[in-house]
Amino acid sequence: MFETNKSIKEKKEKSGAKPKRSLRKDKTEEQPYYDYDGRKINIRCAVNNLTYYIENLSKEQKKVVREIGFGSILSINLHSVPRKFGYLLVINFDAENDVINTGDEKIKITTDLIQKVFQIPNGKIKIEEKIRPKESDLIIKLWRGQFNTELLKRMYTANVIRDLKRKK
Fold first, then answer.
1. What percent of the chain has pLDDT over 70?
2. Three-class SS of 53-81
3. In the prediction, which pLDDT does 156 show?
4. Three-state DSSP class for 25?
5. On the CB side of 73, how many CA atoms lie within 13 Å of its CA?
6. Please, which residues have CB within 8 angstroms of residue 95's CB and are 6 or more apart in sequence?
7. DSSP secondary structure letter of residue 2
8. By three-state DSSP, how is residue 122 classified?
9. Where are the domains of the chain?
10. Which residues are paired to 84 by β-bridges?
């Protein structure tokens, strides 16, 4: 009735599919380097929205961003993501050891490295994640009620901004 891990592993090996990380390697095995095979990573976010938001922050908002230590974000000018490069990074990333294998060297991803590369604060100021409200929340229903139903079907931030500007 239930398949064992061994039989699942055997099926994956026969099919040529990569087994899950937990089955594929133990902690001591290193991530091999995979050559680029022409594929691209699919990204489900519009990165140009980030640039748009940054460019349209008020002086007061930009001041607060700098005060909390994220001033370097204000200079981001990103309009696309290199999808081929992203795919290469993903297939060569060892999530269990936080290492990217570049073929020539292995780069350990640490909080200090991220701080140095992106110049984002690493430490003193704690930023709490906001709890997402439920769809049944009365405030959410009222907020959504101000938009036409066609917009709600594919609600992207850019569409919401454009719709709000039209109503002014």
1. 70
2. HHHCCCHHHHHHHHHCCCHHHHHCCCCCC
3. 67
4. coil
5. 18
6. 21
7. P
8. coil
9. 128-168
10. none
